[in-house]
Amino acid sequence: xxxxxxxxxxxxxxxxxxxxxxxxxxxxxxxxxxxxxxxxxxxxxxxxxxxxxxxxxxxxxxxxxxxxxxxxxxxxxxxxxxxxxxxxxxxxxxxxxxxxxxxxxxxxxxxxxxxxxxxxxxxxxxxxxxxxxxxxxxxxxxxxxxxxxxxxxxxxxxxxxxxxxxxxxxxxxxxxxxxxxxxxxxxxxxxxxxxxxxxxxxxxxxxxxxxxxxxxxxxxxxxxxxxxxxxxxxxxxxxxxxxxxxxxxxxxxxxxxxxxxxxxxxxxxxxxxxxxxxx
Length: 279
Known about the structure:
Immunoglobulin-like, five-stranded mixed β-sheet, four-stranded antiparallel β-sheet
């Protein structure tokens, strides 16, 4: 009796040892990827023999191999993650595991724009027909995707108007924005003239450029007098020009840039601007 009490009081009887140890299905896969790429997806944790059914983004495949390679190329959307489901069965037991693979796509890096090949700390308004070519030589995409400027504006704060943008030779369609922003052979570039805001042509919906200049495939004003209506008709104090640009890569990743650059005072056509007003 004493030994029985000792046994009952001081010992814990273990559960019976099962014939087989139950294993748990899991999935080994990267947490995020940037298509296009090849991804290895492995079913792990199962010791027994059975069949694996892989469902990768809605496409199923069944055999005894516990891994698959998936080519991620033309996916429906970069906004939705890739869902992977693996089901294992030996005809008696069945297990299912799911993994979520994020589709990473960082937008382009814009860097600092150049104005006529240089950094600009101020625009000079005394030259009413000063032509400014805007380029982005520092722009790149972190994943190596191709990218383009898809939108751009040049806004005069004090005048309260958007300046005309030219992308010669223009190849766009309505609305009047180019398919690709470019100036000649320079991609991701555009041109504007300081304090020039032209109405759009009725037939082409493209702006006119100042008389005496040239922008391929665009039309000019007919005379110096014709140009005057597109410059400010009053003096404008020292102010700012706000330049914006949107870059988009081939996977839909976008980056917006915004730069504020001072502009010297402006005197209307026929006015006199003193040298002291321009840095």
